[in-house]
Amino acid sequence: MGQGIAGWVAEHGEPLILQGDLKEDPRFAEAVRRSEISSAISVPLFFRGTVIGVLNLAKGPGASPFTESDVEFTSVLAGQAAAAIENARMFERIQKAYQQLAELDYLKSEFISIAAHELRTPLAIILAYSTLMKEEATEAIQEHLDIVVDAAMQLKSVIENMVDLSHLESGELELQPQPVRFSEIVELVLEGIRPLAEEKEHTISTEIPPDLPTIVADKQKLCVILSNLLSNAIKFTETGGQISIRAEVDGDALLVAVTDNGIGIPEKEQERIFDRFYQVESSLRREHKGIGLGLSIAKGMVELHGGTIWVESQPGSGSTFYFRIPLRSPR
Ligand code: ADP
Q1: Residues 109, 169 contacting (CB under 8 angstroms)
Q2: What is the pLDDT, as a whole number, of residue 283?
Q3: 4-92: CATH topology
Q4: How far is the centre of ligand 1, averaged over its atoms, from the C-alpha of 260 (Å)?
Q5: What number does the ligand 1 atom closest to the CA of 281 have?
Q6: Which of 116, 145, 240, 271 is 20 to 30 A from residue 93's alpha carbon, by CA?
Q7: Does domain 97-170 have CATH number 1.10.287?
Q8: The model's pTM
Q9: pLDDT of 25
Q10: Does the C-beta of 164 come closer than 6 Å to ligand 1?
């Protein structure tokens, strides 16, 4: 800045046409002599009011001098060049940021996969031994062991989510379709989830037409999808809530709806809740357990079936999560 011809132009933010007497100016004489310039134009490159560089044009000894119209032309060119340079820099910065994000994402996936793997075995041991000890323990100790088993079961479901996520991400999760009755899935899931619902005094109703056809789908994954939706409905509904599970045939697909009359989801969050680790932050919800993976896993598994999942919700009056999967999922 301030040194030589370009330095002067950058500092002052004005173009300079260097010929005649100006060449003798002590500020530029040294530069003129060093580069054997007969005449030169130097214009600032402006981007949003800031000088980001200087464009220099110079002629050697014997050439005809620059004119005012050359300066005008160069200034127009400089305006375009400044915008192009800034765009290219921005593009580079964005690319770098994307690359860093991709690396972070990879690390996160790796971490989840390793952590889940390493936690599985010790947890299985804790569960096995505490269950075994319960059988031989006195009543008082049995109560303590119940708490241990409950906590270990909670940990197990977190780890299962982590394993499912890493399998989904790595593309390792494969569909194993078989003929299933959806009512059977509902029964299985309700059996596991009932204690949670009872604890919060929720009523769970089902509306499944008796003539609902048998579908071809992955039974275990359907259980995970429904179970994740139901456990959210239970979690995010105040005590004594109403939850319903409905299923019907919609064209060549099975349409399932899980409705609650809970706290609901603001419209602007409704897309993002299906992202990994995304949780709607609010004092109301922060007390709830979970790591923000349930919906992204449900979405991944529905999509594996070639289906779609979405939500309709009104804050304060409840949510309905829908998923629609083909009656016959591709193998
Ligand atoms: P987690 O339940 O572990 O937080 P999920 O991926 O299952 O993660 O859900 C993401 C977020 O979506 C939840 O944290 C919550 O904010 C919101 N959400 C999901 N289901 C419901 C629901 N039935 N009612 C209100 N909010 C919900």
Answers
A1: yes
A2: 47
A3: Beta-Lactamase (3.30.450)
A4: 12
A5: 16
A6: 271
A7: yes
A8: 0.74
A9: 82
A10: no
User: 315 in ligand 1 pocket by Cβ < 6 Å?
Assistant: no
Neighbours of 149 (CB within 10 A): 17
For 179-326, CATH gives: 3.30.565.10
Query: Distance of alpha carbon 257 from its chain centroid, rounded?
Result: 25
Q: Where are the alpha helices (DSSP H) in 49-67?
A: none
For residues 169 and 133, what is the distance between their CA atoms, to the nearest angstrom? 38
Structure tokens at 79: 């305006």
Residue 186 CB coordination number (10 Å) = 20
Q: 38 near 61, Cβ under 8 Å?
A: yes
Per-domain residue ranges of the chain: 4-92, 97-170, 179-326
Which residues sit opposite 243 in a β-bridge?
204, 260
Ligand 1 lined by 273 (C-beta under 6 Å)? yes
Q: Give backbone dihedrals phi and psi of 46, rounded to 5 degrees, phi first.
A: -100, 135
Token pair in block for residue 147: 């708490």
Q: Going by CA atoms, what residue is nearest to atom 19 of ligand 1?
A: 232
Distance CA 164, CA 158 (A): 10
Ramachandran assignment for 325, one of left (phi > 0), alpha (psi -120 to 50 degrees), beta (any other): beta
Helix, strand, coil percentages for the chain (3-state, nearest 5):
55, 20, 25
Q: For ligand 1, say whether the CB of 166 is within 6 Å of any of its atoms.
A: no
**Taking the chain, what is the end-to-end CA distance rounded to the nearest angstrom?**
67
Give the pLDDT of the chain (331 residues) as one tens digit per residue. 888 888 999 999 999 888 877 777 878 777 777 777 888 899 999 999 999 999 999 888 888 888 888 988 998 999 999 999 999 999 999 999 999 999 998 898 899 889 998 999 999 999 999 999 998 999 989 999 999 998 998 899 889 989 999 899 888 888 999 999 999 999 999 998 998 899 999 999 999 999 999 999 999 999 999 999 999 999 999 999 999 999 999 999 999 999 999 999 999 999 999 998 888 865 455 667 778 899 999 999 999 999 999 999 999 999 999 999 999 977 6
Nearest to 307 by CA among 294, 322, 326, 321: 326
